[in-house]
Design brief:
The protein is an alpha/beta fold. It folds into two domains: about 110 residues, Response regulator (Rossmann fold, 3-Layer(aba) Sandwich); about 60 residues, Arc Repressor Mutant, subunit A, CATH 1.10.10.10. It contains seven helices and five strands; from the N terminus they run αβαββαβαβααα. A five-stranded parallel β-sheet has the order 2-1-3-4-5, with helices on both faces. α5 packs across α6. It is elongated and about 80 Å long.
Length: about 210
């Protein structure tokens, strides 16, 4: 357990945080506490047009939030977000949901609770990132499988062989050329499509 706790604290210390909040006592309390935790902290107000390149965690006041401003801020970025709220109003709750906030802290800001929400937000952010990567990998695998299946059917039709034999043909070519099967499959499909674009067709092989 102690080892896991150290990992959590080490992750927090490696974070680069941007606090977007009016420059008042709450902002000063939050910034000072985050610095005491050991992470790199920047403060900005009003909301900047874009995130600094190294920022991976944002503490953001959601009252009077500009949707367009947030869209510009998070363009092509996916930081951990901790929303800062004054009241649990419907507007604030909608902003939290729209932001897909990973954590929430309420005002007036007190050091107690910041560490918990910070750690929770970083954990959720990391989990979502890993899950997104797994989904993307699975989608690539399925796409590659469909590409290989399409190439197998093309080879089977052209060579008048069954799909198992066409699969072996594709596999043997990939092995011989030291390339992935999906790469060879894409070449087969591209060749057929190129011929079609020229109004040409490849006649199936006639086997005696």
């Amino acid at each position: 357990m102690k080892g896991e706790a150290r990992k959590i604290l080490e992750d927090l210390r490696q974070a680069c945080v941007l606090v977007i909040h009016p420059r008042d006592e709450d902002a000063a309390t939050l910034v000072d506490h985050l610095k005491r935790l050991g992470c790199e902290v920047k403060a900005a107000w009003p909301m900047p047009a874009a995130l600094p390149k190294d920022v991976d965690t944002v503490f953001l006041q959601v009252e009077n939030l500009s949707t367009d401003g947030v869209t510009m801020l998070l363009a092509d970025r996916d930081p951990a977000i901790i929303a800062i709220v004054t009241y649990e109003s419907p507007i604030a709750l909608k902003a939290i949901i729209d932001l897909n906030a990973h954590g929430v802290i309420s005002k007036p800001i007190r050091p107690l609770g910041v560490l918990t929400q910070f750690a929770l937000a970083r954990y959720r952010w990391g989990f979502e990132g890993r899950l997104t990567a797994k989904v993307a990998k699975l989608e690539d695998t399925l796409k590659g499988r469909r590409t290989v299946d399409k190439a197998i059917k093309i080879l089977a039709d052209l060579n008048r062989i069954d799909e198992e034999a066409a699969y072996r043909m594709l596999r043997d070519q990939a092995t011989a050329q030291r390339q992935q099967m999906v790469t060879i499959a894409e070449t087969v499909i591209s060749a057929q499509e190129a011929m079609r674009n020229f109004g040409l067709t490849i006649a199936p092989i006639t086997r005696n």
